[in-house]
């Protein structure tokens, strides 16, 4: 560590707010030793900012507390390099505690940590892998505030304007970009696995390898999102995890795969058959039971709800099935020993800590309550949607389900429900107070 302290590098220390945005400080390396042992002070209220970084006065953490500080302690043993930075820089991911050292539970990483502990108390360890989709954009997209597919300069010089799912040629044209992504992932310890060209023009998915540390899996997802945007800027691209950047193209999803190990390391979802164990079915039942409650976590923004359309590879009601990508909860075909659940609801714009906390918490409740799921769906789930209650398909409806949820109060905590619910209410008020261009075009 002494070599690091003597370095001329700056470093960023950041926490993740409830919206998944990074909040923190950039500091000189001379302060690193103090940060590693004592942490950094940030106001508790930072966790509950709205999407634009404004205080949310209704959450009870601002004036009522004198805008008191929490202590942000690094979760890494040493700084991690930021390979895409223009000048030498490192980063540290942190988690917020109260001044007395107790966990600050509106912190999304603390919430997931508590869910994982509840599994551990039952003798189970979640094994998790994430799949994040994103769009590469033309470098001018951020300034114009309008998405445009990138031009592959080192390929054939064409703009990626057509869907070319699973195309190897499309990735060949971006070989330099993906090589730097892979190298940056290795430098930061992010276990990136396969790279896939997806359904939209310039849309890609990078899958993470499974890990038996669910909190670390969320850390990787958070760092990966920052990494993709940083490397994209180096190549004069933009990158977005926005749920639906193009109205007529595929949305960006965030799929979660998970299984459970017992204390002997056995996968408790495996009973030697393709059907899976009773614990798997109980977990599925919990996921289906609490999907509407958690929709505001899986789809946190106004734009998020544009993903949920029949035939758009995003589920519109709580459903499950075996090897079926039209349902919300899929049991993938696999060797029995790898029997697992895939949760297919969340958008890539969601906070990974909260997504994993809501998914694992719902599965845990299903197991603890010994719930039973309905019959699995075979065939096209979209064709059966009229037979089932739809998931909340608008932001404000999701907020109502969220605030009425006894499950979320119990498993993710009343502090989280209050602070997150207040932030979403403020965001809705801000957006709905603005008059859109389409209204002027239609009514002026």
TrEMBL record:
<dbReference type="Pfam" id="PF00120">
    <property type="entry name" value="Gln-synt_C"/>
</dbReference>
<dbReference type="InterPro" id="IPR008146">
    <property type="entry name" value="Gln_synth_cat_dom"/>
</dbReference>
<dbReference type="GO" id="GO:0004356">
    <property type="term" value="F:glutamine synthetase activity"/>
</dbReference>
<keyword id="KW-0436">Ligase</keyword>
<dbReference type="InterPro" id="IPR036651">
    <property type="entry name" value="Gln_synt_N_sf"/>
</dbReference>
<dbReference type="GO" id="GO:0034024">
    <property type="term" value="F:glutamate-putrescine ligase activity"/>
</dbReference>
<dbReference type="GO" id="GO:0006542">
    <property type="term" value="P:glutamine biosynthetic process"/>
</dbReference>
<feature type="domain" description="GS catalytic">
    <location>
        <begin position="108"/>
        <end position="444"/>
    </location>
</feature>
<protein>
    <submittedName>
        <fullName>Gamma-glutamylputrescine synthetase PuuA</fullName>
        <ecNumber>6.3.1.11</ecNumber>
    </submittedName>
</protein>
<comment type="similarity">
    <text>Belongs to the glutamine synthetase family.</text>
</comment>
<dbReference type="GO" id="GO:0006598">
    <property type="term" value="P:polyamine catabolic process"/>
</dbReference>
<dbReference type="InterPro" id="IPR014746">
    <property type="entry name" value="Gln_synth/guanido_kin_cat_dom"/>
</dbReference>
């Amino acid at each position: 560590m002494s070599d690091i302290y003597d370095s001329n590098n700056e470093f960023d220390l950041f926490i993740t707010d409830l919206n998944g945005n990074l909040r923190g400080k950039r500091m000189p390396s001379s302060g690193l030793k103090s940060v590693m042992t004592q942490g950094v002070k940030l106001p508790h209220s930072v966790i509950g900012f709205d999407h634009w970084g404004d205080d949310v006065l209704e959450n009870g953490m601002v004036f009522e507390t004198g805008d008191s500080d929490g202590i942000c302690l690094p979760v890494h043993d040493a700084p991690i390099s930021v390979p895409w930075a223009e000048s030498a820089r490192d980063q540290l991911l942190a988690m917020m505690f109260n001044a007395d050292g107790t966990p600050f539970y509106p912190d999304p990483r603390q919430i997931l940590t508590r869910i994982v502990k509840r599994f551990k108390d039952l003798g189970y360890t979640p094994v998790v892998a994430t799949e994040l989709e994103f769009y590469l954009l033309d470098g001018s997209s951020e300034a114009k505030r309008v998405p445009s597919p990138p031009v592959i300069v080192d390929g054939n010089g064409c703009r990626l304007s057509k869907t070319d799912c699973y195309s190897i040629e499309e990735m060949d044209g971006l070989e330099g970009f993906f090589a730097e992504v892979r190298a940056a992932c290795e430098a930061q310890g992010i276990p990136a696995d396969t790279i896939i060209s997806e359904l939209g023009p310039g849309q890609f998915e990078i899958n993470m390898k499974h890990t038996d540390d669910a909190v670390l899996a969320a850390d990787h997802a958070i760092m990966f999102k920052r990494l993709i945007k940083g490397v994209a800027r180096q190549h004069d691209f933009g990158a977005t995890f926005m749920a639906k950047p193009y109205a007529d193209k595929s949305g960006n999803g965030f799929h979660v795969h998970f299984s459970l190990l017992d204390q002997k390391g056995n996968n408790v979802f495996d009973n030697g058959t393709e059907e899976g164990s009773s614990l798997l079915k109980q977990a599925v039942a919990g996921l289906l039971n609490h999907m509407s409650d958690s929709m505001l976590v899986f789809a946190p923004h106004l734009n998020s709800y544009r993903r949920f359309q029949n035939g758009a590879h995003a589920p519109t009601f709580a459903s499950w099935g075996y090897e079926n990508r039209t349902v919300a909860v899929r049991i993938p075909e696999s060797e029995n020993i790898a029997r697992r659940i895939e949760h297919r609801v969340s958008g890539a714009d969601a906070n990974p800590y909260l997504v994993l906390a809501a998914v694992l918490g719902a599965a845990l409740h299903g197991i603890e309550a010994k719930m039973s799921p309905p019959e699995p769906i075979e065939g096209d789930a979209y064709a059966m949607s009229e037979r089932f209650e739809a998931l909340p398909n608008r932001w404000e409806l999701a907020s109502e389900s969220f605030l009425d949820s006894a499950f979320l109060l119990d498993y993710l905590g009343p502090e989280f429900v209050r602070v997150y619910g207040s932030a979403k209410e403020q965001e809705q008020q801000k957006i709905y107070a603005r008059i859109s261009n389409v209204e002027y075009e239609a009514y002026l």
